[in-house]
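Morning. Coffee machine broken again, so started the prediction first thing and wrote up yesterday's gels while waiting. Chain of 453 residues, entered below exactly as on the submission form.
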Amino acid sequence: MRPAVAALLFAALPLPARAQDRAAPLIDRCTAATCVAQLTPDQVLIEAEKLITAKRYTEAKPMLAALGKLPAYRVQARFLAGMMAAQSGDHPHAAAMYKAILSEDPGQTRVRLELAREMLAMGQGQSADRQFKIAQQDRELPPDVAKTIRAVRDVIRAQRAWRLDVDFGFAPDSNINNATATDTVNILWGGGTLPLTLDERAKAKSGVGQTGSLSAGVRLPMAKSTSMLVDFDSAGTNYSGTDYDDYQVQLAAGPEFRLRQGMSLSAEGVGAQRWYGGQLITRQLGFKTQFQTVLGGRDRIGAQLDMRHTDATFDDDYSGWQGAIYGTWEHAVSKSLVVSSGLFARRDWLKGEAYSSTEFGALAGFGGELPHGINFGVSGTASRAAYDAPIWLFSTEPRKDWRFTARASLGNRKLRFMGFSPELQASYALTDASLEYYKTSRLRFRFALARYF
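Came back before lunch.
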């Protein structure tokens, strides 16, 4: 199917021709054995285009090399070099040329479409779909091209597709055990309160860990508008010793139904486990459903329901059901920048009433691609949580929290080492709890190398 998809794009996106000069290439118009001509850069560009159209690549290469030395013509030279490589079947080199242009100017929609086409030719359907998705945000796309892109994306989604994201690095953390920073807490005792000094192990500890994550997924076609999704996610952080090591894995699988163009519904069974301090602390089984639809090409809304049963091996009071519902909206503010917002609600029905809670919150984010290969993102959440019953050791009133998170990430995909690009993340979490013992703050940095296959 992929060759047919590439052909469809070739029909919709022909090589731009310069109608103002359709004469034969200057080389063919020479009448002497030695031909000398003085050309402006624009004229050299026209001659190079003619030679590439005629598939005379050997003669075009010196012209492109000369143009590439002029900053004002570097983009055109790279674009034509990419076209020449694509027509020669050297798809990796063509993709590299297009990526170089987009790293300097992510707003080049035509170049992005050519890159997507090369990714299709290399069998990278998921990566191509991502480029098509960004290109769709361009309001100046001709209607026939926009229609073709939608058709191509539908074909990609109907085919077998896979993804694999890997990263590794190190993470300085102000609170590796997510504990309170207070030295003493008050407990109820004999009709009054008694201050107790906390053991050092109960206080917040800082540290630097080695961290990594792996995320993989596959979409298997089952019928005309139905696919089977299989997703695997894992992440972990290793500290000195085992007391605060934290690892988790999750596997999800289930069908995705394409209800119509730009609208889908999925339902997946979910299983997850988490290890902390060298011990298995939770097992989860449940399901999640997700609905999303595209509105007007630049907006997307989605809703997700996640229900799981947790088996807490460290304390049975934390075992029980957990459910969450999310509603999100995304809007493309430009060709490569997206703003998002949403609301969420969460309910924990645990065996211990004092640990069962209801939480409501809001989220917001902004991110995308910038020139020079820079990718960035900023996001945050704010929520209010109320617990069902008091923890009698600390208070006669149920606990209530204000919770805030903030996250920023910065990467550069233009810089590569064996295919991996650098990323920097910073995250901050604050819990302002009505009980002193549960007040926490955590600042974490993450320096990593990431690769997206």
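Residues 1-21 have pLDDT under 50 and may be disordered. Going to sketch it on the whiteboard this afternoon.
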